Each structure stands twice: as C-alpha cells, then as structure tokens.
Amino acid sequence: MTLAIDCKEITKTYVTGEQEVQALRGIELEVDAGSLFMLVGPSGCGKTTLISVMAGILMQTSGSCQVYGQELAELNGGDLVSFRGKNIGFVFQQFNLLPSLTAAENVAVPLIIQGVKNKVAYDRAREVLDRVGLGDRWQSLPNQLSGGQQQRVAIARALVHEPRLIVCDEPTSALDHRTGQVVMDLMREVALADGRTLVIVTHDSRIFSYADRIAQMDDGQIIAIADDWQQLEGMHHHAA
Question: What is the mean pLDDT of residues 74-80?
Fold first, then answer.
C-alpha cells in the first residue's frame, strides 16, 4: 500500500502574547493512498490544525509530515505553493467561494493560479461541475445556489486540478441529512474512483459509515484509530 500521508511526532504550538497553546502533541498517523480517512473528536481538539499541516497551509512546530513522500517542511515558499497546487485540494467549512464569481469561475481559480489559459480552465471547470451534478448552474453566482449546491461547487474546485490528496473541513456540517449523503456519495465516487485520497474532519456521525478508517482525536493527540465507527465505539466501551 502506498502512503499518502505519513505524520511522525508532529507538534504545533501557538504563541499568543505570554501564552503558549499546544494544539498538536506528538501526532503519529499514516493514511493509505486511495482511501477515505476521517478525523473525529470534540471542537478545539486540533483536527483543523492537523489537516492544515497535512495540506501545507500551516507548518508544524516539530516533527515530520510527508505527503506522497514529500516532506512539506523542506519546501520553500514557491515550491510549497507549486506542490500544493499540483497535489492538494482543500474544501473549507465555510465553502470560501468568491461571491462575485460564477460557479465556473470559482472552480477555475486553482487552474488559473497555475497558469492554465482561461478558456481551458473554464472548459475543465464546466466538466467538473457536470460531474458533481451542477452542469446547468455554471453561470450562477454563489448567492443564487443552495448550501448543498455551494458545497458541490467547493468540491468541484478542490477536484479541478486533479490533486492526489483532498482535505475537507466539516464538509456536511451546514447541510441537511439527505444533502450530506449526496455530497458524501459524490466525494466517494468522484474522488476515490480516480485513486485519490480523502481526509475529512467531521463532527457529523451521520457520515461516519463512509470512512475506510477513522481516527479519534482529543486534546491534540490521536487516542484511537479503527477501521470503522463501530470498532471505535467498541474500544471506548472497552476502555471505560
């Protein structure tokens, strides 16, 4: 099995004024390529910090984070941006769509940043919107779309440059149950079909069953990893 992510002894300390906050305390984690991996745990336990390190958005204080064999901390500014641009897609909790751009323009952004010509980028954006079931809404602005549709635009934007790793922060938290399931089915189908790796941070127990593996975090540490939610629950009862 190829490893998509290999984290060793990762710590992250935030310093605010006099105070130091340890967000991550020695994280050890391996994520197989081509799998859907979930991180669960209470608010403030370090999940978003950890995926931000995996996505190269934040740098860890110490330890090693390799993505497809590349140590992110060894890349300087331009190389890191270029590595992320080729290999990593990010779906933010608040969607982060640009309000003045149409769905297709929003989806085309990662390609345009990479220097792809506008027409090619828009054609590709429309293809990916079609794959996520929004082919007819490519000219709509975000405020003309429902929450579920905006989420699908955000997913299309994360997929458009064909990254090997897609990292999602609470992708279903703003969605009703049915829409959440549609979005998860879509992510499994569109992303994993192409052998990509998905790492999803979630509180939403309704989608736990989609995971190939689940890690539970608490207070900056991973306290359990299991192949499915029932197994994780079983460990808890055992530990209790």
Answer: 89
